[in-house]
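We examine the record.

___
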Amino acid sequence: WGALHLVGRNGWRAVGLAGGGAMAAGASMLLAAPRSHCSSDAKNGKSWFVKPWTSFQAAASLPDKVPGYERVHVIKRTYFTISLFTQLRDLNSSQEIFVKSARHLISIILSEALNFVPFMPKIVNTPVDGATYTGLEMTDVENLCVVSILRAADSMADHISHHLPGLPVGKILIQRDEKTAKPNVFFKKFPKNIQAKRVILVDPMLATGGSAAEAIQILKDDGVPEHCILMVCIVAADEGLQLLTKRFPQVRIVCGEIDRGLNSQKYIVPGLGDFGDRFFGTN
């Protein structure tokens, strides 16, 4: 496992298993896994670990860190993710294709972002030959919540709720003034005790960073520690990343792709247009 996360109020800090620093109780069992063979060991009740059965498989790891940023990560590019981004960015894609591709990408990006929530080792019995498997279990889920920046981010929040039913969801309505590109806050409603939770803040497009910065500041004003906020987006521009990392250096950011920048109207280039309009079929 590339990194294991301490359970408790430690924000989104990752603890490397191979490096220095304290490790969560039980983490050493992952390091003690046998190197590689697939044999009849299961008959003897021996554990099969996260990585022993096929030595060619890489250990699980965090999303790639973006050079120049300490706490900004981008998902691993595959032929499939590139094809999904191609469909999202194509101005000729129908709403049906756009929504289908967006949902695929949201699932992939969120699954990588969830690497930053706490996990602990867990041994389970399999149905075969009395074998056991040592894997991981997400912990402290009750102290996790999602906050979406309306309305485009609802597509992402709904996806998290589908995979983690019962997870509290908060809303912030922030709209960018098309003339000034400055954010205006109209509405907010957060889960109870949000100051004691880890917050996944979702917004598909991180352009100037103004709306995201306003949302983060509101969360901080409501008592959420900066290091307990994880920002997740589909496409980001460097201008937005620079703003957030300078104003909120302890916030962690996970994005699908990083584009080259903004045009004179403050739209991401090459971008994909207005995500909300294309997803919900509005103008």
About this structure: The radius of gyration is 20 Å.
